[in-house]
Predict the 3D structure of the following.
Amino acid sequence: MRWRSLAWLILLAAAPVAAQPMVTSVAPEGVAVTIYRAEDRGPDSAMNLGWLQGYALVTERRTVTIPAGRAVIRFEGVAGGLLPESAIVTGLPAGVREKNLDADLLSPRSLFARSWGRPVVLRRTDRNTGVVREERAVIRSGEDGAAILQTQGGFEAINCGPLLEQPVYEGVPAGLAPRPTLSIETDSPAAATVTINLSYLAWGFDWQSNYVVNLHQGGNRADLTAWVTLANSDPTSFADADMAVVAGKVNREDQRRYQFTPNQSLVLKCFFRPLPQDFSNLAPPPAPAAMYESADIVVTGMRASLKRAAAAPVTVVGEDLGDLKLYRMPIPTTVASNAQKQVAMYLKPDVKTAIVYSSWIDASDPSSFAIERGLRFRNKKEDGLGVPLPAGKVAVFEPLGETLGLSGEGSTGDKAVGEDVDVILGEAEGLSQSAIVSGDGSHSLTISNAHPWPIRFEGQLAFDDTHYRLEKPSVRLGRKNGRPLWAVKVPANGVATLRYRLARIAN
């Protein structure tokens, strides 16, 4: 009897475990995408479309019917750059036991790579007659370089002769998915149809803002248009998403550098030529191809003229997110895979502006300094703005006859409501400077204006205030960035002069 019981136990242990039921969610019913900028990219730097280093928070809403007991739920169509450790699933009757990401997508390259050591059919086509012959073969090389196959006649590299040769696969190897898929294992106390919220972080996204400023005649008013450009290098598209972007620097502890999605095409060479060991004489490699074969920019939002749009502007809602700023798109937005989209953000007509000439001056040796031309506006409602402005590039246009001409380009950092926005447009023309330095520490600075109109000049005086102090300025000085500021209106075809003395501080 004891031996019979032991035999039953052995048979039960050897019996195959029944496969767990599998539930597949093909696509989300709704999706929200919040994109965070690349952390190390400044406001004057463009997005690297070949390697987007920002990331996104994706939240999907899906409805699934799950059985009682253990089951595997497959979420197809998630972002290929999904970080599995960040995935959060809510709405299940019980918790998640296990999470797996199937992001090795089916492509000519991955199909060849996964078929290494597997039998295939080698199809040979005569280029002249069209006659096709087939024979059995085994793939004996990787996906880079030459394609080495073993046939009954031995080893050979395909497509090295007059025939057109290609491998024909018997099936799709396990592990290759047509779309990125996240699978989870759950254990439900009862069968149910539930609505699930799936949230996760995914890399391979970025965004930037751009401003277009059309100055009015005279330069004291302008029409400002703000755009936000969204970029997605992921193989998954997000249709009609609730889109938002976040400005500011987020503290992230994860220091991994995620690579962009590898090229999925398969390029086979006749023979592999190893690189020489001496790399000193090699020419530098060519620049990498852009992620986007066509630079299509899909513009959403304001399609009417400036005058019509002013009556009903598109408004992006700015919200506080701790020390960050979140900007919600006003309409559902689609961001296709490997694509960009530009969405209208603000349209602010008749903004009060000012042309300001500025310089950073070494007060101890003011013999030479550059004067820059810039545009200034206050981010206040009474001046026509009063909205949070994310960092980005600024293009300024001025009236040029019946049209507009580019006056200059600059950038601005993130600006809150109430802050001044200064955009440096380039080196000033029509202004010059001169200085006289005396042996007793007296200095004299002169700004000359060759324009037939007055200009505003601001010069920040920099010096070592631990050893010197500035004394007896000829005009009252303000302060900016912790330094004395000489702000003056220089008359048309006139000059303005500042005299001061730098005295050494006694020990």
About this structure: Confidence is low (pLDDT under 50) at residues 1-17, 257-263, 272-313. Residues 458 and 487 are 4 Å apart (CA to CA). DSSP finds three helices and 32 strands in the chain. The first strand starts at residue 22 and ends at 25.
